[in-house]
Amino acid sequence: MEEVEVVVAHSRRVTLRVGDVFLKVDVDPAHADVEVRAMALAPIPTPAVLWREPPALAIAAVPGKALGVLGAPSTASPAAWAAAGAAIRKLHDAPLPPWPGPVLEDLAAELDRECAWLLANGVLPAEVVRRNREIAEAALRPWEPAFIHGDLQITHVFVDGDEVTGVIDWSEAAPGDALFDLATLTLGHEERLDDLLVGYGDAVDRDVIRGWWSLRGLTASRWLIEHGFDPDAPGCEFDVLRARMGEP
């Protein structure tokens, strides 16, 4: 009998692994709808869908291992990061998925709300919130929509050697800002951005990527805290926000 591994568990979603099968249970069936449709459209390796019986979705594991984890240095080679960049570029150049994506005005309003909450609750020093709010402004500009993954955390990209073998967890996929994906993947691993851009192409605005690092850290913190995660763990969101304090 295979052991059951709890991959993620909170009040909205549970992901279990049994052998080579992942079972995802989500209270919102729209998430699975997007995930299945996005994986069918994405021109890069994705997991196979085994079956779906709402609210459960079963998908096959992908070979290889994650590019890294938040809070620890990535041991993947520069070539593996470049391969990830090339795969993301292929995704971003693909036709847009036929459903709406993030709205700039909504993101700006969310940033204001979350900064106010951080300050009101004394979660971070006011100067850290203020400085990162200032840096985040660079991301709040109109963008040319691309097919984005939408939650491209480092644990969602799998490699075997220097080859991308699969990208998982597509429930946030939508038309959106390509640089948001690049920022999400390199959050807490800023030193690997150059390696990523070898494969992606370096004609990107790094100030916007820095803006997304700050914006994601500010807006994700309350959700993480309320769902039992620790954004103050070494190398995680709070460290990313603090690191911006030493930048011009």
Automatic annotation (TrEMBL):
Domain called Aminoglycoside phosphotransferase: residue spans: 37-210
InterPro entries tied to this protein: AGP_Transferase, Aminoglycoside_PTrfase, Kinase-like_dom_sf
Example of a GO MF term: transferase activity
Keywords: Transferase
Superkingdom classification of source: Bacteria
PANTHER family on file: AMINOGLYCOSIDE PHOSPHOTRANSFERASE DOMAIN-CONTAINING PROTEIN-RELATED, AMINOGLYCOSIDE PHOSPHOTRANSFERASE-RELATED-RELATED
Record's protein name: Aminoglycoside phosphotransferase
The species this protein was found in: Saccharothrix saharensis
The organism's taxonomic lineage, starting at the top: Bacteria, Bacillati, Actinomycetota, Actinomycetes, Pseudonocardiales
